[in-house]
Amino acid sequence: MLSKHSGKINLEGTVPIPTNIAHLIEQQLSAAMQMFLHSAGEFGDRNQMRVFLVGGMVRDLLIGRPSRDPDLLVQGERLTLDDASKLARTLAKAWDGKVVTYPRFGTAKVDVGEFVADVSTARVETYSAPGALPDVAPATVEGDIGRRDFTINSLAADLSPTGFGNLLDFYNGEKDLQTGTLRIIHSRSFEDNPTRLLRAVRYEARLGLQMTLQTEDAARQAVEFLKVVTGDRIRHELERICEESE
Fold first, then answer.
1. Do residues 9 and 59 make contact, with C-beta atoms less than 8 angstroms apart?
2. Backbone angles phi, psi at 74, to 5 degrees
3. Interior CA angle at 150 toward 153 and 74, to 5°?
């Protein structure tokens, strides 16, 4: 894994990121979490679904930071927005958990007590205006990863029985982790979702990252769009900032 100091990425002595993180899952996650991830991949495989661990937990595993709640990405054979709900209900039944679905967005939450898993259908998003809630449509895993916020959050790990832990990296997220770089995936990232501006500040402080010049320029140009975001969404990001140790 990458070396770290006080919870921040340390560029001295970094090593290449592995192409498979099954050993990091085994070393860093609880037995219950490991079983849950394996079962998600197995259930998906039985039902012609591709299931991946995505986002913050993959990033945190690579840099050795604690991470509590997993994000799962699922793509069914027929590309419908129901894929996440189907997998979430199956997992909730198997783990005696509670499930809440959000059909409009193709997402669901599974609460199994020890943790809450977010399950999302692979999708693309379009925005009618800066800061608006997205309109979504089913897509491939590759298409979904391309609509995310930063390259460091674009890494995904296969959970299928035959490929468990294999990494997908379409946007050089591993290189940006190595160099301590915070980079948006596409030029409209902040405009589409201005709360990502607050998220960028949080990542810089938490991980010791530095925005690229292009990312910083895009952030400055998008600041005005924060005023059109609802108070609830702003509050949520501010609460997460306040939860940080620094």
1. no
2. -130, 135
3. 45
Long-range contacts of the stretch 62-66 (C-beta < 8 A, 24+): 62/1, 62/2, 62/17, 62/21, 62/24, 62/155, 62/174, 62/177, 63/1, 63/2, 63/4, 63/9, 63/177, 63/207, 64/1, 64/2, 64/4, 64/28, 65/4, 65/7, 66/28
Q: Write the DSSP string, 8-27.
A: EE--TT--PPPSB-HHHHHH
Q: Is 138 helix (H, G, I), strand (E, B) or coil?
A: strand
| Whether 70 contacts 21, CB under 8 Å | no
- Does the CA dihedral 124-220-223-174 come out positive or negative? positive
pTM: 0.87
Alpha-carbon gap, residue 173 to 155, rounded angstroms: 6
Which 3 state secondary structure label does DSSP give 170? coil
pLDDT of 53 reads: 98
Residue 168 near residue 148 (C-beta atoms within 8 A): no
Q: What are phi and psi of 77, to 5 degrees?
A: -65, -30
190, β-bridge pairs = none
Identify the bridge partners of residue 2 per DSSP, sorted by sequence position: none
Q: How many residues does the chain have?
A: 246
Angle separating helix axes 195-207 and 231-242, nearest 10 degrees: 0
- Identity of the amino acid at 157: A
Measured between its terminal Cα atoms, the distance across the chain in Å is: 23
Give 208-222 pLDDT, tens digit per residue: 999 999 999 999 999
